[in-house]
Amino acid sequence: xxxxxxxxxxxxxxxxxxxxxxxxxxxxxxxxxxxxxxxxxxxxxxxxxxxxxxxxxxxxxxxxxxxxxxxxxxxxxxxxxxxxxxxxxxxxxxxxxxxxxxxxxxxxxxxxxxxxxxxxxxxxxxxxxxxxxxxxxxxxxxxxxxxxxxxxxxxxxxxxxxxxxxxxxxxxxxxxxxxxxxxxxxxxxxxxxxxxxxxxxxxxxxxxxxxxxxxxxxxxxxxxxxxxxxxxxxxxxxxxxxxxxxxxxxxxxxxxxxxxxxxxxxxxxxxxxxxxxxxxxxxxxxxxxxxxxxxxxxxxxxxxxxxxxxxxxxxxxxxxxxxxxxxxxxxxxxxxxxxxxxxxxxxxxxxxxxxxxxxxxxxxxxxxxxxxxxxxxxxxxxxxxxxxxxxxxxxxxxxxxxxxxxxxxxxxxxxxxxxxxxxxxxxxxxxxxxxxxxxxxxxxxxxxxxxxxxxxxxxxxxxxxxxxxxxxxxxxxxxxxxxxxxxxxxxxxxxxxxxxxxxxxxxxxxx
Length: 511
Prior knowledge:
The chain is of the alpha+beta class. The chain has a single domain, classed as Up-down Bundle (Outer membrane efflux proteins (OEP)). 58% of the residues lie in helices and 11% in strands. The protein contains nine helices and six strands, in the order αααββββααααββαα. A four-stranded antiparallel β-sheet has the order 1-4-5-6. It is elongated. It is found in: Cell membrane. This is Outer membrane protein OprM. Residues 1-35 form the signal peptide. InterPro entries: MdtP/NodT-like, OMP_efflux. Residues 80-114, 406-433 form a coiled coil.
């Protein structure tokens, strides 16, 4: 009993001493800890000094650049503004990207949790029955009386892996970079949806104008058919002329029906982009009846090429993926080194519940554990090679993304520059064709030209006008794509999506 009492008295002195030693060991380990693996530096990529296809475009000063955020307002269209506001709030693809961003944030929190010790508690109660069996000298067995044994325990466990080689820090670094890349992916998805909506909206605007032109064409062809029938009735025209006029009218009516199909599909596409069923959404017919009533393309200020590396969300996401891949090299290299874990437990253990809370029932243990892999058949070396290859691939992806960004800008600069000249030439062609058609129609009424000449000049005039509208639609698309290529309104911030996007900028968001 004295021996047990001495042990009980020594326990309070031993426990603090051991804890002190373990704490000192942990402090020394943390002070001398280092992070293996390469520190991240963004690789160089070739950035041009100016845009090849800029022509007369002038690079804007930063204060004159496209406003961050609502870039679509440069088109000065209230209907487009109202539609664009709904994309961030209700588009389901944006909702998917936002959920993926929140997952990436949760992974960062999960990785940071490894910096701290883990605590656990356990409780158990068991009852067991045992029988002692002995072998007699003559080889027979003797079975003793069975005994029952009760056991109760209550314990608190703690463990802490020290980040000696930076494995945890590199893992946190990788997850943070991945979360930032996810934010870039969210911004890229939002910018893509907004640009697609703008393209569809302007294409619908052009389609409504084409419908107006076709309706006017049908009305003109109906009057021309009536004129031809009158000419046939008095013996001036032939039956074939009447049939040709009918064919011309029916073809124009078919084109008008096809325009109705295109408009309906564009309207449905816009509905889905703003998160609404097509059956519950409709847009009024636009009022423009010809090319000259359509809104003009606004001036889109350029920024220096290097700004694309900061403003394009897909470029930013590729760069952050590269940083995450670089950190994973450190995680793989840290596996070469031993891990040091501090563990401890304390609790109570007794054979009877009444003795569980007594002093002699207390138990504890504490101590470090050093573990290292001595042979793994090259698994760790392969993991390092894999991480290095993944990083090299991410570098190539980043550089290709940058090249693609510059190509997007150059493509749409070229499109806008040459389409502007093409529109001027086509507009002159439309005026000339319309004048020729008007002259030939008057001459046909006077009987000085053939019917074939009249329908030819009429078809040429209306085809030229529809071509002019098609070119205008392409120019709208190129303008939207140029804004997208320049990075839209993203400037490193995480976009506000969901219901919060519907709130005014000054209104506090719900926590």
